[in-house]
């Protein structure tokens, strides 16, 4: 199978996994989306595994698909979340393409951290614009982006590099990062 077809199929699979994963978290722990960040994991994997273009597409389609099927994320945060996830997918794909240390795992962590920080900044800026700074402050953003979501961040930092490293060892897309 050609690489582009594999990337398209992988992207579709990751979108499906994201919607299912989100539902599992919301079923067993209602309201846990901002804590465990289940939509973020497949989007970051898409960027790291398939590149910036596919990461961006998965980042856009994942929250939109999830919202259409499950109403999660809610309409009030759909725009911010869509742009946040699009940023995650695109930035992780760009950084993994350009950062080339001698260690594959270091490359993955660099791309992951830069994407995670950039996406959270985008989410914060959008919230500040939407809520016109009066109701939204730096402390609210820090609490939401880093403290409330700390369990999800820890899951991402442990799980995503392990998944990417394993898939690369298996030559999943015939391109190692």
N- to C-terminal distance: 19 Å
Poorly predicted segments? none
Radius of gyration: 16 Å
Number of helices: 8
What's the β-strand tally? 0
Please write the string of helix (H) and strand (E) elements. Answer: HHHHHHHH
Give average pLDDT, whole number.
91
Task: Give the biggest sheet.
Answer: none
Structural class: mainly alpha
Shape: globular
Helix % is over 70%
Approximately what portion of the residues adopt beta-strand conformation? under 5%
Can I get a quick summary?
The protein is an all-alpha fold. Helices cover 80% and strands 0% of the residues.
Notable traits:
177 residues, mainly alpha
Kindly describe this structure.
- The chain has 177 residues and is mainly alpha-helical.
- The protein contains 8 helices and no strands.
- It has helices at 3-28, 33-36, 40-50, 52-70, 75-98, 104-130, 138-148, 150-169.
- Helix 1 packs parallel to helix 4 (52-70) and helix 6 (104-130) packs antiparallel against helix 8.
- It is globular, with a radius of gyration of 16 Å.
- The two termini are 19 Å apart.
SSE map:
Elements: H1 3-28, H2 33-36, H3 40-50, H4 52-70, H5 75-98, H6 104-130, H7 138-148, H8 150-169
